[in-house]
Write a structure and sequence with these properties.
By secondary structure, the chain is of the alpha/beta class. The protein is built from nine helices and seven strands; from the N terminus they run H-H-E-H-E-H-E-E-H-E-H-H-E-H-H-E.
Length: about 260
């Protein structure tokens, strides 16, 4: 990821509509998991970036402990400045992280060009205690690739079947896999088509401003409310597309392993 993008992320991730919508989905799933277990959770964020999600988790009653890792020094500097417990390591090499976590989270990490998805997922599965839960958010639908992906070194986008197979190859059993940001996907797709008609190739020399910006307050609030309505209706009105995929997959208990 370009260094400038870490600065942008650190500044926006607490207030931007997309981050807030994603956190609401993750927190809802964590609340269900804590209720299922009857106790607060031990959570590890693999590829925690600048630590915005970890900071939120540290304030939640359903979370007993939240730690994370990242490889980039700038990301770790921001996270440590927030007083967070983070270590430097790649998601491709999680062997040095103590295992036994109730939940491992990973948000928009697998599509990074330096990440080997099979290796990263195997490492995340290895961090889980038997019966533990992996929560994974990834960029979805290859047709939605855009300049922002290049700036954050995104190399791949996922479809449900492929992501489910990756989870299975790591020994995890998928419980849920859902598209989200579905209602905004058609206008996003149209905008990308128009961009490509206007220029067959966009040259990004690294000096262009980040595509991640905080919109006007009224629009930021409106988009957040739209995604919250989508979340609430998703169980009765699922859509077969979206710019992101959220996976929940469980590590079998020891007696379930053949």
């Amino acid at each position: 990821m370009q260094p400038r993008e870490y600065e942008v992320m650190a500044a926006l991730e607490q207030g931007h509509w997309w981050y807030r919508a994603l956190r609401r989905r993750l927190l809802e799933r964590l609340e269900r998991e804590a209720h299922r277990r009857g106790r607060p959770l031990q959570v590890f964020d693999a590829g925690c970036g600048t630590g915005g999600l970890l900071q939120v988790l540290g304030r939640r009653p359903e979370i007993a402990r939240a730690e994370g890792c990242d490889l980039h020094p700038l990301a770790l500097d921001h996270a440590r400045a927030r007083g967070l417990a983070v270590r430097r390591c790649s998601v491709n090499a999680l062997d040095g992280v103590p295992a036994g976590w109730d939940v491992v989270l990973s948000v928009d990490v697998l599509y990074h060009r330096q990440v080997i998805p099979e290796r990263a997922l195997a490492g995340m599965a290895g961090l889980l205690a038997p019966g533990g839960l992996l929560l994974l958010n990834v960029a979805a639908m290859p047709g939605l690739a855009r300049r922002h992906d290049q700036r954050v070194m995104g190399a791949r986008r996922f479809l449900p079947d492929g992501l489910r197979l990756l989870a299975a190859s790591a020994g995890l059993r998928t419980e849920e896999i859902t598209y989200w940001n579905s209602w905004l996907t058609p206008p996003l797709w149209l905008w990308l088509r128009l961009q490509r008609l206007a220029a067959s190739r966009v040259h990004d020399d690294g000096d262009a401003p980040s595509e991640l910006t905080l919109p006007p307050v009224w629009l930021n609030i409106s988009l957040e409310k739209l995604l919250e309505l989508e979340r609430r209706l998703a169980r009765v009105l699922p859509l077969p597309w979206g710019s992101s995929l959220l996976l929940a997959a469980r590590k079998p208990m020891a007696q379930e392993v053949c």
